[in-house]
Amino acid sequence: MKRFFVALTVLIAILSAPNKADAELRYGPMLGVNMSTLKFKQSLIEVNKVCGMSAGVTTEVIFPGLGFGINSGIYYEMRGAKLHLGGKLIWSSQGFGTERSYLHYLEIPIHLRFKWTRMSGIEDYVAPFVFGGPSFSLLIGHSHIKALEYANGEMGLTVGGGLEIMRNWQVSYSFTWGMVYAEQTKLLDHFSAKNRTMDLRVTYLF
């Protein structure tokens, strides 16, 4: 949580800088789907990917002439995985089988962004962009699987790219590697997992 508030303070400082008047600030709604899994430290059980979704508000600040900027926002995102706990006696003996472990997060990304803005007018119709940086997530809910315990939040590193269409619509694809554990089992020490998430998102910026 300390990292979360430090990053949020840095973001506010950037957006409040004296030269912000020279930058283009836009915001708008975002909807997306994802494919996620949980990467455990040891391969003791079979783990399958599951589909999830995200929704929220995105902000983008781009400095004209440079193409560099920052994008952030606040999102709801559902991640998780299908865990075959019944494949091991330690859990099957307690009645656990194939369990869907869903994690519900409130996410704030803080990503550096570069957008190609000098293409002789073509950028008014289509402009590619790339981005990357940390994403901070606060756990707001999860599946009730008694064999597991959950971290209160996580930090991930995200890289991605996309296209801006007609200056308002943005379609992006990204991959996020969880840097800290998201959940762990109660019975085995150090059997913990980190999130791995692929996101496809559509945003409309005013």
UniProtKB/TrEMBL annotation:
Q: Any idea which UniProt keywords this protein has? A: Signal
Domain of life, per the record? Answer: Bacteria
The Outer membrane protein beta-barrel domain extends over 23-178
Q: Do you know which InterPro entries this protein is assigned to?
A: Beta-barrel_OMP_2
**Signal peptide range in chain numbering:** 1-23
| Name of this chain's protein | PorT family protein
Organism in which the protein naturally occurs: Muribaculum intestinale
